[in-house]
Amino acid sequence: MQLGYVTDDIDAAASYLESRLGTVDCVRHYKSSLGGGRPPVGAGAGAGAGEPRAPFVVVDGEPAAEWVIDVALVNAGPTNLEIIRPVGGAVDLYRGAIRPGVPATLHHLGFRVDDFEEASAVVAASGRTWKQYGDSGGIRFGYLDMTAELGHFVEVMELDEASAQGFAHLEAASNAVRDGEASS
Question: Which residue among 10, 41, 73, 96 is least enclosed by CB atoms within 10 Å?
């Protein structure tokens, strides 16, 4: 569902997608932070159904005290394009892939899953661990380091209803422009 990119200049990268690749305007979020939270303890721990979840991120097995990124989001039809600029804290997972002066560099492929716990069990059964995982309060996510085999990370995401709607709105905005141009 997603192609994830990294950049050292979020505005230049978003402008590149808009002007050179013809996307609609990117939705930009500056200084998004998940640092300082702690993951729930125990199997099935955390908020109950319908209750808000506390945001957190774990990098290399350690809860991150600081984790701040800028993000730009836009869709090309059903495919989400995400651009991440690492800002501060435990964000070397993104920083290490940046090619300075280039609008954006492919970093990860993102896949939606229905059950993040089930995806985590599959990762563990394969003898691997998440390089980074967390919960934004609306998206539970994990990054599997596939750089040696594939040249990029693989991200899996379990979306709550509000987050799924957010991605649906990005797709609808993309489709509205495409459908408008087709009927002109």
Answer: 41
